[in-house]
TrEMBL record:
Family: Belongs to the RLP family.
Keywords assigned: Cell membrane, Glycoprotein, Leucine-rich repeat, Membrane, Receptor, Repeat, Signal, Transmembrane, Transmembrane helix
Domain of life, per lineage: Eukaryota
Stated name of the protein: Leucine-rich repeat-containing N-terminal plant-type domain-containing protein
Entry's Gene Ontology cellular component terms: plasma membrane
Signal peptide: 1-19
Matches recorded under Gene3D superfamilies: Ribonuclease Inhibitor (3.80.10.10)
Repeat in keyword set: yes
Keyword Transmembrane helix found: yes
Membrane topology reported for the UniProt record: Single-pass type I membrane protein
InterPro entries linked to this entry: Leu-rich_rpt, Leu-rich_rpt_typical-subtyp, LRR_dom_sf, LRR_N_plant-typ, RLP_Defense_Trigger
Protein species of origin: Buddleja alternifolia
Domain Leucine-rich repeat-containing N-terminal plant-type, residue spans: 30-74
Length: 999
């Protein structure tokens, strides 16, 4: 380099240094500094914590506001070019406690002095709409997300604005959209999560847009096709998580500049073949829609594709193996939860060197993934970070995983994997964060090397296998940072290792359904202070429920049911005052419910059933105002339910099998959300109250086995959602209310969330993806990553035996049981209109009249019991139309005539269904209905005189027979001394009457 060039560089550096010194001494502009102080005052408010603005303004004695936090200045001009004021109104403590949170208005004119401002973030400050105008000719990026705006701000001069983020506000209409239309240089518009129901028709005016995002709104109907097609520069279109239905909008196919098309979470259907024209696509996300048909192989033409997500649709056929070798740029692939069939060879992805994520979970169990056939021509050139092959009929561990050293996420759940869990799964993958081998057939003990610590692992799920032996004593030291541990439904033996108490970050432990015994280790409940969910159900654990020194202050869910815990309700529960769910059913717990139970103010589900807990409920129960599930069944509780108990949030109430007395509690009148009410097998008396009609959501009403009386009130017919009604084994009198037919009893019932179908659900594994990111697995956040649903179980007599109904079956079951009462009158013809009912039992009453012929319309009935009444007449022959009837009884009535033809279901009923009706005839009874033609029955007329003579002859013959028999007995005792002495002994010793024996 010549001397002139060196001299020029030296002069330039000297000039820059001089400028830096000059501007550094001058600091920022005085008007900008004053404006910043005004902004500080505007963002301040009374009672905020002293530390919230400790750095706002930085060194306030310094005039150089460019050194303040939240502020960035130009290096040369020292003018403010960036203000990062996001999340500065409220401190974290205030937000966490939800105190003083209220919307407020900011005067946008405070920003006028910042003439060179280019970037402004006011996100997450609870801003309300402002009538002042926001104006800046230099501003390029404006972030107003996470506020309380309900309309577009008033924009002034914004010639340079390129980025506008209005996500997470309340802008659901476009009354002020003309303000956005002024922004002709705008390239990015983000309107996510606002409640918007349509894209504004005039949006095509902003032809400079490159990114348009309406994610997570309420978009429905059609797109403004003519407007969107004008956006020739559009590169990203995100309308995911909306309500758009119907065919895929064909105008998209002509938008050749598109690089990212994100349509997940809608209800779009039809074929996606037209997308093959978008040669520049880099991200294609159509997950969670209703697309069907086969995956077109022409998608291989999208050679720039980096993300392909077609999960959770209705794609069928085989996965085209020719697709992936063409897509050399692929980094992320998800094809999970479709209806693929046949086989798919994983070797088809072996040449995708950039691949980092591959997810495939079979939806219909008809897809088989072959990991080794055809054989891989060479070792895979990729290094995966995430691999999901769930429910893919794998029968062996994929061998190529031995060379995958960068795995963070591995899910091989719901397959047919057998043998022992390979040790290399853990030793080779030191970065592994999530491992799920759930629902396979792994056997043998779990082998861990004490010197190999898996420090990155935070989610381990090897539940539903056949792993046996004891949990290694070093378990806690091998997984020191584990957050979620699920080894339920295995064959584990021995005691719970105390080393689990060394896992200080542990949040979830599920060791249920094993063969564990002994007590809960004290070190576990003392050391794991962050434990959120503990489930040890279905083992043979003993001792107190929780050790007295328990320190599980963050525990929300505790399930210890089906063990052998004994003693009284342990004081070890006292520190877990945030409990939301507690289940200790089916144990040996005794004593009474202690008064300190009222401390569990957040309790939503309390299940104490099938123990030996007794006494009265304490008054402190009245403090439990969040209860939605209460099950105290099959204990020894007595007395009445305290009138102060708050049942306003109750969904499922089980008090059966106790000794509760008194009337049906009036406090139930407030339980408008009640779905199940089971008060059976107690000692309740009185009537069914009229206010029963207020329980409008009730689906199950069980009052069996009490001392209830009077008539069945017509108000019960207002319970339009009832599916199961059991009033049996009481003393109800009067007639059957004909209005019962007005209750649908399951007719057109849809499966919803009324009865949870699974015992508990875990958060589905999730991951972030952008082709610029590192594809790391998301760690969970918040306390809702592991939720528990109580599985409702209903016991009801059907088909002559008690059955337990739960899950989806509850939506299908319907029945009425009025048996074992004192009901009179006829069976209402209207009951024949219960066309969806499965069980009808009115046996053991005093019903009269005939069997309604309308019963032939009970098309779904499976069990019909009319026995032990006073019914008369013939059995309607139309009943043979009941094709689902499997249990039928009219035994012990006064029915006459021939039995229905032995066709269809009636061909399976035995004579026990008809016994006790002497005037019935026909098979399967032995009595024939045919008479001999040669000897017809003779009717003999009797006169009045004949009847008197017959009566007189009967009386004389009876007297002669009586005297003769009595004399014979006296003569026999006189002659047989042995029997005479026996008789005297019975009279003296058993009856207590002295007998004179003579000499």
């Amino acid at each position: 380099m010549d001397s002139i060039s060196l001299w020029f560089i030296w002069a330039l550096l000297a000039s820059l240094t001089l400028n830096f010194e000059i501007y550094g001494s001058l600091g920022c502009m005085e008007e900008e500094r004053n404006a910043l102080l005004e902004l500080k005052e505007a963002f301040n408010y009374p009672n905020r914590s002293a530390s919230a603005f400790s750095s706002w303004g930085g060194e306030e004695n310094s005039d150089n506001c460019c050194m303040w936090d939240h502020v960035k200045c130009d290096f040369i001009t020292k003018r403010v070019i960036q203000l990062s004021l996001n999340s500065t109104k409220y401190d974290d403590e205030t937000i966490a406690n939800n105190r003083f949170l209220q919307g407020w208005r900011l005067n946008f004119s405070l920003f006028l002095p910042f003439q060179q401002l280019q970037n402004l973030s006011l996100a997450d400050n609870y801003l309300l709409d402002s009538e002042s105008v926001l104006s800046s000719s230099k501003l390029q990026n404006l972030d107003l997300s996470g506020n309380w705006l309900d309309q577009f701000p008033f924009f002034g001069t914004f010639n340079s604005l390129k980025f506008l983020n209005l996500a997470n506000n309340y802008i659901y209409n476009f009354s002020n959209f003309q303000e956005v239309m002024k922004l002709r240089a705008l390239e990015t518009l983000i309107m996510d999560n606002n409640g918007i129901d349509h894209i504004p028709p005039s949006i095509g005016v902003i032809t400079s847009l490159k990114v348009l995002s309406f994610n997570n709104n309420r978009l429905n109907g059609s797109f403004p096709e003519e407007e969107l097609i004008k956006m020739r520069a559009l590169e990203t279109l995100d309308i995911g998580s909306n309500e758009i239905a119907g065919r895929f909008p064909p105008f998209i196919w002509a938008m050749n500049s598109l690089k990212s098309l994100l349509f997940s979470g809608n209800r779009l259907n039809d074929s996606i073949r037209g997308l093959c024209r978008l040669r520049n696509l880099e991200q294609l996300d159509l997950s969670w829609n209703n697309f069907s048909g086969v995956i077109p192989s022409c998608l291989g033409n999208l050679t720039s594709l980096k993300l392909l997500d077609l999960s959770s649709n209705n794609f069928v056929g085989t996965i085209p193996s020719s697709l992936f070798p063409k897509l050399k740029s692929l980094e992320f692939v998800s094809l999970s939860d479709n209806s693929f069939e046949g086989s798919f060879s994983l070797s088809s992805i072996s040449s995708n060197s950039k691949l980092r994520v591959f997810k495939l979970r079979s939806h219909n169990n008809k897809l088989q993934v072959d990991t080794e056939n055809p054989p891989w021509t060479a070792s895979p050139v990729f290094q995966l970070k995430q691999l999901m092959l769930s429910n893919c009929k794998l029968n062996a561990m994929p061998r190529f995983l031995v060379g995958q050293y960068d795995l963070r996420f591995l899910d091989l759940s719901h397959n047919y994997l057998v043998g022992k869990i390979p040790t290399w799964v853990l030793t080779n993958n030191t970065n592994l964060q999530v491992l799920s081998l759930r629902n396979n057939s792994f056997t043998g003990p779990l082998i861990l090397h004490p010197d190999r610590k898996i420090v990155e692992m935070y989610w381990l799920d090897i539940s539903m296998n056949h792993i046996n032996g004891e949990l290694p004593s070093v378990f806690g030291s091998v997984f020191p940072n584990l957050l979620i541990l699920n080894m339920s439904v295995n064959a584990l033996q021995g005691r719970i290792p105390s080393s689990l108490g060394d896992m200080k970050r542990l949040r979830v432990v599920d060791l249920s359904s094993n063969n564990l015994y002994g007590e809960i280790p004290e070190h576990l409940v003392v050391g794991c202070e962050l434990l959120y969910f503990l489930k040890l159900s279905n083992n043979t654990l003993q001792g107190p429920l929780l050790p007295p020194k328990s320190n599980l202050t963050g525990l929300f869910y505790l399930y210890l049911d089906n063990n052998e815990f004994s003693g009284e309700l342990s004081t070890g529960l006292l520190n877990s005052t945030h409990l939301k769910g507690l289940d200790i059913s089916n144990n040996l717990v005794s004593g009474e419910v202690p008064n300190w139970f009222g401390r569990f103010l957040e309790l939503e589900s309390l299940i104490l059933s099938r123990n030996s807990i007794g006494g009265r409920l304490p008054e402190s129960f009245c403090r439990l105002q969040q209860l939605s599930v209460l099950d105290l069944s099959w204990n020894n509780f007595n007395g009445i339910i305290p009138s102060c108990v708050d049942l306003s949030s109750m969904n499922y109430l089980h008090l059966q099998g106790n000794k509760f007395t008194g009337l049906i509690p009036h406090i139930l009148n407030t339980s408008s959300s009640l779905i199940t009410l089971d008060l059976s097998n107690n000692r309740l008396s009185g009537e069914i109250p009229d206010w029963i009609s207020s329980l409008s959501r009730l689906r199950v009403l069980l009052l069996k086995g009490n001392n209830l009386e009077s008539s069945i009130p017509s108000q019960i017919c207002y319970l339009k959602n009832i599916d199961i009604l059991d009033l049996s084994f009481n003393s109800f009198s009067g007639s059957i209310p004909p209005c019962l037919y007005e209750i649908p009893f399951g007719r057109e019932r849809q499966i919803d969330d009324t009865f949870p179908t699974s015992e508990y659900t875990t958060l589905r594994y999730s991951s972030t993806y952008s082709y610029k990111s590192n594809l790391d697995v998301d760690r969970f956040s918040g306390d809702d990553f592991y939720t528990f649903d109580v599985r409702e179980v209903i016991a009801f007599m059907s088909k002559s035996r008690y059955e337990s109904y739960q899950g989806n079956v509850l939506y299908l079951m319907s029945g009425i049981d009025l048996s074992q009462n004192k009901l009179v009158g006829t069976i209402p013809n209207e009951l024949g209109h219960l066309t969806s009912i499965h069980t009808l039992n009115v046996s053991h009453n005093h019903l009269t009249g005939s069997i309604p012929t309308t019963f032939s319309s009970l098309s779904q009935v499976e069990s019909l019991d009319l026995s032990f009444n006073n019914l008369s007449g013939e059995i309607p022959p139309e009943l043979i139309q009941l094709n689902f009837l499997s249990v039928f009884s009219v035994a012990y009535n006064n029915l006459t005539g021939s039995l229905p033809d032995r066709k269809a279901q009636f061909g399976t009923f035995q004579k026990s269904s008809y016994e006790g009706n002497p005037l019935l005839c026909g098979p399967p009874l032995e009595k024939s209905c045919t008479r001999s033609r040669n000897f017809p029955p003779v009717s003999i007329p009797w006169s009045s005189a004949d009847k008197d003579s017959l009566r007189e002859a009967f009386l004389w013959s009876f007297m002669v027979f009586y005297v003769t028999a009595f004399s014979g007995v006296i003569f026999f005792l006189y002659c047989c001394a042995y029997y005479r002495d026996k008789l005297f002994y019975v009279i003296e010793e058993k009856i207590g009457i002295p007998v004179f024996r003579g000499s």
